[in-house]
């Protein structure tokens, strides 16, 4: 391994695809990034172009190699991390997608979820898969494609179509596509489809049958760290082992070195996602959280997590920028929010796709409440910032209740952690220190660690622990009465968003 100096991570995210090169210390050597189009065909629908994403993936791999002035011979392994529940279906002979990627935020599958739930309700499959029936997850998205794209059902049943989450699409193309591409996924991504048995880590035939998804479409499920395949002959990563795959939130948990039971992290990205390591036994939630696979290294037992998923966090800032034009750049929100002393009584509940954890209310829609003539755009910006912290507090309290132990600190990562005002307010709301690592690109880093461990570039998780270093810490400073008053009003605001979508509202 002496000539292998780096591990390459491909981070296929909701708004962009990135390639990041890491050295043995976990330091970033080079980054390349390309955004892709967000397609909104109608209210509640969110799509991406899978071919654009593959083109962008190739471009950022080329870009990062160029910036670092290296070639594949210095790369020990490649890791992939991805937006998790977004689903794509394609023809295995031509490599052509039959429809756009249906993105995790998309709500069009609500009628399918209701139909599947029947008289048993949204928890029908929860004991088997750890998830309640919701538009968030991949399985019903594939059902929608098979039911709504002309000819797709017949082609699927003939064995001509493949399905996957975005890691599977990238892996298949990286390893050759129609010329011998590997059709596989890892346990973390499979655990987000509603199709995998959470205890046995294999596809559940009965649920697949209920959703009308032929077993021939499904990728092989493999551990998160282990060789999936090698780079295609006519690409830039010829014969380089692709040896790590983790869904983005599990990758961040891995990169944050949350290897002990009870350790947790919160990632602030398009959405907001808190995961707590629960060890090698899945813990079922009584408080609106998801049971998910955290990671699996080779032949070792899988490690599980409890997860609280918040649909809208950073995307609310983008909405303020793109839909309302209140700011011109996402990073401007901090200064605008800091231009006022408080929220002026305004609360913003961003239930654009319904409410995720811990409520799971698809009938909710976004609301800006508490408005008076006094409120200005600074107060609205502050309400936007605070909404992320309030939602995180809801999830953390549910996590404490499920796990039976109180978190003593919250590790954080993701783009929004650069926002000092938000991080201080977050510490004030959760009442424990908030800790940001020196390397905040923990999602890409986690996938790199998994890939590097699989090939011996790193010896194991202790190397991850040794490389992790604290960057900044925020201590709670808010008066307890004020903390409680703000949260009480937030809960009143949440109540105003419920029962908005009626049966005759078509989205």
What does the model show?
ADP binds at residues 14, 18, 270, 314, 415. Key enzyme in the regulation of glycerol uptake and metabolism. Catalyzes the phosphorylation of glycerol to yield sn-glycerol 3-phosphate. This protein has a domain at 314-412 and 479-497: ATPase, nucleotide binding domain (Nucleotidyltransferase, domain 5), CATH 3.30.420.40. 33% of the residues lie in helices and 21% in strands. The chain is built from 16 helices and 21 strands. It has a 7-stranded mixed beta sheet. A 6-stranded mixed beta sheet has the order 3-2-1-5-12-11, with helices on both faces. The chain has a two-stranded antiparallel sheet with strand order 4-7. Helix 13 (420-430) links the parallel strand 19 and strand 20 (434-437). It is globular and about 65 Å long.
Keyphrases for this structure?
507 residues, Nucleotidyltransferase, domain 5, 6-stranded mixed β-sheet, 21% strand, ATP binding, glycerol metabolism, ATP-binding
SS element count, helices: 16
Overall 3D shape: globular
Distance between the termini: 54 Å
Low-confidence stretches: none
Order of neighbouring strands in the sheet with most strands: 15-16-14-13-19-20-21
Q: How would a crystallographer describe the biggest sheet?
A: 7 strands, mixed
CATH T-level fold name of the domain at 314-412 and 479-497: Nucleotidyltransferase, domain 5
CATH homologous superfamily title of the domain at 314-412 and 479-497? ATPase, nucleotide binding domain
- The SS-based structural class is alpha/beta
How big a fraction of the residues is strand? 15-25%
Domain Carbohydrate kinase FGGY N-terminal: 6-255
GO biological process, one term: glycerol-3-phosphate metabolic process
Binding site for ATP: 14-16, 270, 314, 318, 415
Function: Key enzyme in the regulation of glycerol uptake and metabolism. Catalyzes the phosphorylation of glycerol to yield sn-glycerol 3-phosphate.
